[in-house]
Amino acid sequence: MAYDPLLADRIRELIVLRASDVVEKTMFGGLSFMVNDKMCVSTKNDRIMLRLSPETYEIELQGDGVSPMIHSGREMKGFLFVTGPTIQTKAGLSRWVNLALDYNEVALPSPGKRTTSSPKPPTGKKKK
């Protein structure tokens, strides 16, 4: 796993201030923080990746040290990488983590994912 454990600790401390349903998973070659069964923040090496609202994504994409997540040659709208001075301070990292947590509250799970509390979709078959 290639992530900075100190950066992961700093993220963890911020997330637990606002969320109780947090699971840590190794994903994307780093450590991801799943909040309410949805990817919220991830860290790999010295950068973070976050899931933001479409509106916030477009605005924040213009900032220094920010780049879009590219997967299989395709830009993943809503997912940003952030690196550099903006995440080195407590205030800077807190701002980014809180933006991700704000969106997590209203975000839908990724397609194909279903939370344990969600009902199963109808199959179209009638019970005999």
TrEMBL record:
<feature type="compositionally biased region" description="Low complexity">
    <location>
        <begin position="109"/>
        <end position="118"/>
    </location>
</feature>
<protein>
    <submittedName>
        <fullName>TfoX-like protein</fullName>
    </submittedName>
</protein>
<dbReference type="Pfam" id="PF04993">
    <property type="entry name" value="TfoX_N"/>
</dbReference>
<dbReference type="InterPro" id="IPR007076">
    <property type="entry name" value="TfoX_N"/>
</dbReference>
<feature type="domain" description="TfoX N-terminal">
    <location>
        <begin position="20"/>
        <end position="102"/>
    </location>
</feature>
<feature type="region of interest" description="Disordered">
    <location>
        <begin position="108"/>
        <end position="128"/>
    </location>
</feature>
